[in-house]
Write a structure and sequence with these properties.
The protein has 114 residues and is α/β, with parallel strands linked by helices. 31% of the residues lie in helices and 18% in strands. The longest helix has 12 residues. The N and C termini lie far apart (31 Å).
């Protein structure tokens, strides 16, 4: 199962659902800020950020901003943090067969803003 599609999880479900449940109950609800960092994997290279509910934090990464739909997709970790009114951002940064130094620097710079 895809961990980022089963939140808030199920304590009696499959292993992935149990992990999501533990994260939702024991971690995601007590944060001051949440940065959900993704990469393009082997291909493609990505460089954009979703503006969820913390626009200044989202823009701190210097990536192209994308405004998501009004309601975050269900099953994501962001759906949990938004329910707790935690300032949250989803960053898609790097990946592909290119030098990652620029993306690492942007991720570091953005995550130090909070």
């Amino acid at each position: 199962m895809n961990l980022n599609r089963v939140f808030p999880g199920n304590p009696d479900g499959m292993l992935t659902e149990q992990m999501a449940h533990k994260m939702a109950e024991g971690f995601l609800g007590g944060l001051d800020y949440y940065v959900d960092l993704h990469a393009g994997g082997a291909y493609p290279t990505v460089d954009y950020v979703y503006i969820i509910n913390a626009e200044p934090l989202s823009r701190a990464f210097g990536s192209a901003p994308v405004v998501p739909p009004k309601d975050a997709p269900t099953g994501t970790s962001i759906s949990v943090t938004r329910a707790h009114n935690t300032p949250s951002v989803v960053v898609e940064l790097g990946g592909g067969d290119v030098d990652q130094a620029t993306y690492v620097a942007a991720g570091s710079r953005g995550s130090q803003t909070s």
